[in-house]
Amino acid sequence: MSQTVDRALSILPLLAEGPADLGQVADRLGVHKSTALRLLRTLHEHGLVYRQSDQRYRLGARLFALAQEAMEHLDVREIAHPHLVRLGGSCGHTVHLAVYEDGEVLYIDKVDSRYPVRMYSRIGKPVAITVAAVAKLLLADLPEAQRRAVAEALDYPLYTARSTPNAAAFLRELATVRDQGWATDLGGHEESINCVAAPVRGADGRVVAAMSVSAPNVVVTADELLALLPLVRRTADAISGEYSGRTPVTTPDRDTV
Amino acid sequence: MSQTVDRALSILPLLAEGPADLGQVADRLGVHKSTALRLLRTLHEHGLVYRQSDQRYRLGARLFALAQEAMEHLDVREIAHPHLVRLGGSCGHTVHLAVYEDGEVLYIDKVDSRYPVRMYSRIGKPVAITVAAVAKLLLADLPEAQRRAVAEALDYPLYTARSTPNAAAFLRELATVRDQGWATDLGGHEESINCVAAPVRGADGRVVAAMSVSAPNVVVTADELLALLPLVRRTADAISGEYSGRTPVTTPDRDTV
DNA sequence: AATGGATGTTGCACGCAGTGCAACAGACCT
DNA sequence: AGGTCTGTTGCACTGCGTGCAACATCCATT
């Protein structure tokens, strides 16, 4: 691993906490000011940090550009999007699409009944990985060893009384989810919110993404939401089919972005 | 400037174009494979790149996290948000907030009449800097020399017949905008879309952001939209006042994020 | 099976590039 | 003026990043 690059990249999360001046950056990196200066200059040339008028540094615009571009190149998302929109339109609830990456679960698309959002507002914030229905599906598909390792490394915050309390319970839940091929979150994250989720699979059968429908129980009861499960699964299967190239793709009107 | 970091960061825009394998990265950087490998490893440890199952690299999740965090620390945006919502609610059209940074103009917030979006969907994509009303305001406030330099470095794509054709015309437009303290875009980007915009100023009078109201002319005519100008300017001034600390801040119900 | 040509990975010696230092330049305050 | 902050520059040293060559896998040919 490269020391210089490592130091430079460590500056980014540091600045994510808020603007900082040269001295602060140097201190927190444990390097000389002149070193920090050169690193910041390099980051600046690439647009990753910006120097505001009070001379302090903060994260730069190119970061948004990169995040945006990266997102648009996620092909699962591109394929899934029209399906999500259709599902959202027909059931009227919020639909999410999520992927797993290096121990984290990440929402990559969201459709609300009235409005499709390209970038989910919570991207980057820690997803409630121990309770979210999509997270269960994604983790349940990991190889045994990895699944255990991840489960045991997690914290288990008690969002509500129904939150997953610990690694053992989580692993049991994952086993169930793995067998049945779908997952729920009944008030595990927020007391009044329920979700049902289904997996999207690649050609080799591995889970590449997971999608869910969420609704507050003041709108529909948990039972009513569960009644949507077949529809959710059918949608997920349709996406799986198209993603793994089984369907000759009936030109699903690609939206002009 | 640091060579190693420079190379490492050059990988990011490269991967933004799409996934690439080790050889491709090494080639495009002009370095040996082993060098590229170490750089990629370092980027990987920081979560900025992700190695997908086919061993190719693509941009990683941490990037979204950083972009998201950065966005939430933009204090103009935080202060402006409730004002934008109120304006959007009262006039019913789309409201944008934008800032200037290092030669680029960047939307940092958007409110649609029915739905507030945290991260604008076009973030990262090149904003139509030569025609957008907010861009005119932001560029018009730059020091003479810098304004000229930027204007002459730009391309002037003819989106429509009313697009700004060249640097000279743009600079003339900027002078006008600077004098009058507001700006419009009447079909300069898309034939049927009009915008009116007003500047948000800091305590020193410098323009720190710009906001606009946009509407298609099938909904309201350009004249009707222009009638909203006083309201837009009042809103912008209110934000300016609060941003520069003049108002003792009447606790403008901070939304619980 | 055996061969060839892809790829990704490791260890190592060389030398340049990144480092910390010390001195300088401003800004701001007392 | 003096003092104390800040950011910046030039330079000598050596530690770190570099490219090389050898190795390890994999897959497609024969």
TrEMBL record, chains A, B:
Record carries keyword Signal: no
InterPro entries referenced in this protein's UniProt entry, alphabetically: GAF-like_dom_sf, HTH_MetabolicPath_Reg, Tscrpt_reg_IclR_C, Tscrpt_reg_IclR_N, WH-like_DNA-bd_sf, WH_DNA-bd_sf
Domain HTH iclR-type: 2-61
PROSITE patterns found in the cross-reference section: HTH_ICLR, ICLR_ED
Keyword line: DNA-binding, Transcription, Transcription regulation
Sequence ranges assigned to domain IclR-ED in this UniProt record: 62-245
UniProt protein name: IclR family transcriptional regulator
Source organism (scientific name): Streptomyces tropicalis
Lineage, opening ranks: Bacteria, Bacillati, Actinomycetota, Actinomycetes, Kitasatosporales
